[in-house]
Automatic annotation (TrEMBL):
InterPro entries xref list: BCAA_transport, Leu-bd, Peripla_BP_I
Keyword check for Signal: yes
Region (Disordered): 30-49
Highest taxon of the lineage: Bacteria
Chain ranges of the Leucine-binding protein domain: 53-386
Signal peptide boundaries: none
UniProt family annotation: Belongs to the leucine-binding protein family.
Keyword Signal: yes
Protein name in the entry: Amino acid/amide ABC transporter substrate-binding protein (HAAT family)
Keywords: Signal
Record-annotated membrane-spanning stretches: none
Pfam families: Peripla_BP_6 (PF13458)
Length: 408
């Protein structure tokens, strides 16, 4: 086995996108023709031809709860890709990733992205699990016309599309998650809920989406309270959220803030049901001091969250099963958030295969025509849609005795 090269129903919508993928492809970039397989600066790769990908992840800092999971999955998928390498035109290219720890700092993430593009000459970028670091990379990637596949939540990452032509997002759209949550809340006979939303761009998306979804579902949104920045008084926000004695509380925040918010709500003597958005899911959320606070909570998440998804026999299901088994063997447990990095790597590799080139512009064009089942769920990219997670990839789960079980 090769050594990984690392430096440090919606069926209608999918069917339409699939049926038109060919015409979209031709309109986006013309017929695929093999190109000169040189590096972006015109020089040959020193160790043979490569597909070079820059990776910015939160390996330390507030985003580490999710960032570390991505690096682990990335290593496993990279090793698999390099067994046979990637056929790009008439050459097989090794995949090499340059991993950088952005320390959960947007300014550092932007500088690293700039260096990866200008100095390292990467063909594409992937990564970041915080919306703020993602947006910092977005500005660099768009300006320097380099494809960037984001792992962070937040609809603004890919909108407005006219200003995000090189940007793609794998996480589900806030509106899709909010609609599922609102329907779930209504089906449980709950009439009034409070929203406790994270500070920042991810929370902004949640506030807009939950308000609209509650109106459509006939659920009263009693109040919206924003969590303070890390280190702020979470207890006060929790008390304010439950002051009106709601039937339930929606916590729209990524790990580790989701677990912190749940503990604060329980300390405020609130014992009603909790509802999380997809970004809340990480091992840290359900372990240690968070365990009792989040027991019984609901989450809307892509269907990769539980072992029940390992029973399928599709190519993607088999690949997912292999990833989960290897991940558990190497790290002792598996988080449903982890497959995003694997999917991002595969999508970029597939774009290189389809384009018969590692040219950044052609990679961008072929990323936006992919309709495929990944390890986290279904993606349906199009020139008019760069947030590719399909809404029918989402399921409702409840935490029971420390494990997520699908309920719908």
């Amino acid at each position: 086995m090769a050594t990984p090269a690392i430096d440090s129903s919606v069926l209608t919508r999918r069917g339409v996108l699939t049926a038109t993928a060919g015409s979209l492809l031709l309109s986006a970039c013309g017929q695929a023709q093999p190109q000169d397989e040189a590096e972006p600066d015109g020089s040959a790769s020193p160790g043979g031809p490569e597909l070079l990908i820059g990776v910015s992840l939160e390996l330390t800092g507030r985003g580490a709860a999710l960032g570390v999971l991505q690096e682990r999955a990335l290593r496993i998928t990279l090793e698999d890709l390099n067994v046979d390498r990637v056929q790009v035109g008439n050459q097989r290219r090794s995949v090499r990733v340059l991993v950088r720890d952005n320390r959960s700092d947007p300014r550092l993430a932007a500088q690293q992205a700039t260096d990866l593009i200008r100095k390292e000459r990467v063909h594409a970028l992937l990564g970041t699990t915080l919306t703020e670091t993602a947006m910092a990379v977005v500005g660099v990637a768009q300006r320097l016309q380099t494809p960037f596949v984001s792992l962070a939540p937040g609809d603004g990452i890919v909108l407005p599309l006219a200003q995000r032509t090189f940007i793609y997002k794998l996480t589900p759209d806030a509106v899709d998650v909010a609609r599922r949550l609102a329907r779930l809340i209504s089906s449980r006979g709950l009439e009034r809920v409070a929203l406790l939303a994270a500070d920042g761009l991810h929370g902004d998306s949640g506030v807009r989406a939950v308000a609209a979804a509650c109106r459509a579902a006939g659920v009263e949104l009693d109040r919206t309270v924003r969590l303070p920045r890390t280190g702020g008084d979470v207890a006060r926000a929790a008390r304010e959220a439950v002051a009106g004695d709601p039937d339930g509380v929606v916590v729209w925040a990524a790990a580790p803030d989701s677990g912190t918010a749940a503990r604060a709500l329980r300390r405020a003597r609130w014992r009603g049901p909790l509802f999380f958005d997809a970004a809340a899911v990480a091992e840290e959320t359900v372990e240690g001091s968070n365990a009792a606070a989040v027991e019984g909570a609901y989450v809307v998440h892509p269907t990769c969250l539980t072992d029940s998804t390992l029973m399928g026999t599709t190519t993607a299901a088999l690949a997912r099963r292999e990833l989960v088994f290897r991940y558990i063997h190497e790290y002792g447990g598996f988080s449903g958030f982890a497959p995003y990095a694997s999917d991002a790597l595969q999508l970029i590799a597939n774009a290189a295969r389809l384009a018969s080139s590692v040219d950044r512009g052609r990679l961008r064009a072929y990323l936006q025509t992919q309709v495929t089942e990944g390890m986290a769920g279904w993606y349906a990219f199009a020139p008019i849609r760069h947030g590719g997670m399909e809404r029918d990839s989402l399921g409702v789960y409840q935490l029971t005795q420390g494990s997520w079980a699908r309920v719908s």
